[in-house]
Amino acid sequence: MNKNEEKRQTLLVVDDEKSNLSLLNRILSPQYTILVARSGEEALARVRETIPDLILLDIVMPGMNGFEVIARLKDDPATRRVPVIFITGLDSAEDEERGLELGAVDYIGKPFKEAIVRARVKNHMQILHQMHVIERLGLLDPLTDIANRRSFDEHLPREWKSAAREHRPLSLLMMDVDNFKLYNDTHGHPQGDVLLKTIARLINSAAARRPRDICARIGGEEFAVLCPDTDHNGALDVAERIRHTVETTKVLSFDSKLTSATISIGVATVIPKDTDNMSEFVKLADERLYAAKSDGRNRVVG
């Protein structure tokens, strides 16, 4: 193996159909080192040998199905943080909800569309690379595994200068979990941590789809998403996608009950000029977040 191959990210593809393995290998092998497994049991054995960067996991397999496999992966500290994309012909909302609750980061439907497969895998590999860089620099929030406030504060001025130089829009989403203190008081602080982890994952999956996008936890239940080269309508679309995803996701509590939460979001967009002030940009997004909370919560204001 040469140095270029050693540097390539590793992808484990798990599917009991040989034709699917062959197709995915053909689509993805030019960019990634591909490992394959034809059953859940074999997948767990392969992961014990080599921990991949990303796993594509079929749901319906004889013996151990995909839901059981991801549960085992998330229970093991060594593999807990390996992102899993489900590949499936199932299309019910219940199946998708169950997969997300178990920790899947995305779904790819069958039959496969090559462009979709490449794009989804590329997006998550780029997010993973960004997270590794952030972690190495000590800029990762220890609870949610997304960027922390320090990372956001270092990232924003760079993107502001870049947007000003290139005359491109820069959008900022400021968000806050609604009634989080009540959720904590009702379900307990450990369950509150589970909720924050879940919401961080949902925000990151829904928003940070390009290498320069950044999702950060900037306070207790406060999050921010910075979207370079995104106009206001695009930012509102991202914000609504986040709001809807959080609202419709159920979080399993320690006493096996399904809980839920909502999120309020303020959105600001600017093409920075010399006369503009970055602090005022952040303040505007904050003011719109406050308006969203004042207007009844669980909404986007931009």
Task: Explain this structure.
It is a single chain. The protein has 302 residues and is α/β, with parallel strands linked by helices. It has two domains: 3-133, 3-Layer(aba) Sandwich (Rossmann fold); 137-301, Reverse transcriptase/Diguanylate cyclase domain (Alpha-Beta Plaits). The chain contains eleven helices and twelve strands. It has helices at residues 3-7, 18-28, 40-49, 66-75, 93-102, 114-136, 149-166, 180-187, 189-207, 232-248, 278-294, and strands at residues 10-14, 33-37, 54-58, 84-88, 106-109, 170-177, 214-217, 222-228, 251-252, 258-259, 263-270, 300-301. The strands form three sheets. Strands 2-1-3-4-5 form a five-stranded parallel sheet, with helices on both faces. The chain has a five-stranded mixed sheet with strand order 7-8-6-11-12, sandwiched between helices. The chain has a two-stranded antiparallel sheet with strand order 9-10. Helix 8 (180-187) packs across helix 9 and helix 9 (189-207) packs antiparallel against helix 10 (232-248). The longest helix is centred in the middle third of the chain and has 23 residues, at 114-136. The chain starts with a helix and ends with a strand. Residues 1-6 have low confidence and may be disordered.
